[in-house]
């Protein structure tokens, strides 16, 4: 039995209205589905809510879970 390969769906950033194709970026960006710009941003809109990406746990959190401009949430 032979299977035909279908076109892959592009891996895009999770941030609202960001259409950056992550396929040429590092594995870290692909794993967490975030482009380099939004990885370092202090505020991103995700699902209509201002959030920030925590580089420690690899999740988006509301801004209240961070101290100042730190990129790791208080839980970590």
TrEMBL record:
Pfam families: SBP. Transmembrane segments: none annotated. GO terms for cellular component: nucleus. The keyword Zinc-finger applies. Residues 10-76 form the SBP-type domain. GO terms for molecular function: DNA binding; zinc ion binding. It comes from the Eukaryota. PROSITE patterns: ZF_SBP (PS51141). Keywords: Metal-binding, Zinc, Zinc-finger. The keyword Zinc applies. This is SBP-type domain-containing protein.
